[in-house]
Amino acid sequence: PPVVAGADIAGRSESAREVGGDYFDHLVLADGRVLLVVADVSGKGTPAALVMSAFRAALLSQDLERLEVHRIAERLNDFLHRSVESGRYVTLFLALLDPATGRLEYANAGHNPALLLRAQGGAEWLPSGGLMLGIFPGSAHEKGEANLATGDLLVIYTDGVTEGANPALEMFGEDRLEQAARRMAARPAGEVAHALVEEVRAFEGDTGPADDITVLVARRVPATPAPLG
After folding, report:
1. Distance separating alpha carbons of residues 61 and 101, to the nearest angstrom
2. Reduced to 3 states, what is the DSSP secondary structure of residue 136?
3. What is the C-alpha separation between 142 and 58, in angstroms, rounded?
4. Exposure string for 115-133, b = 16+ CB within 10 A, e = fewer
5. Mind listing the pLDDT tens digit for each residue in 109-160?
6. What number of CA atoms fall less than 13 Å from residue 135's CA on the CB side?
7. How far lies 55's CA from each of 52, 64, 122, 174, in Å?
């Protein structure tokens, strides 16, 4: 996880098979902002992993310092449409967090809405964006905005979390995710990410994992003052 003044960030991913197709990242930019990435490719196993590898390479080739998040999503969409077989697609939640101000800009490309848990109570879901990537060329995406106060917790995840099912075929769902995140909200980000993955797997029980699951957690924290002298 990155060490960034004003933010506590960590993630965890667990594959349903030996090779998975989920991807998360946290890229620290030169100005101190952090690009938070969670993506999920259609399908599973090695073919999905190969598509995601190409996706990551395309992401890192973008001008991340200058481009707005929705423009990055649009470029990645066109790359995937040109590069992968018909019917393959990637869902993406891409967020740019400025820990100094709490400003969050994001684009949701057909992905599950991220959960923004307020330290003072309440929760928000972040859906703004557009279609999943790779289906249609030239797809437009919107930029969403939010602001994180000190103590607010952002949880970005793949559909393996909310669609995890128990033996009675009940899905874990957004309500359970929000309740679990609220119970864990005081813990460090790494513990929250780990505990959420474990809770989903425990909920699935003997049914076993049906999908890869990935959780990326970011909390805004007081910045540690620089030492004197």
Report:
1. 27
2. coil
3. 20
4. bbbeeeeeeeebeebbbbb
5. 999 999 999 999 999 999 999 999 999 999 999 999 999 999 999 999 999 9
6. 12
7. 5, 14, 34, 27
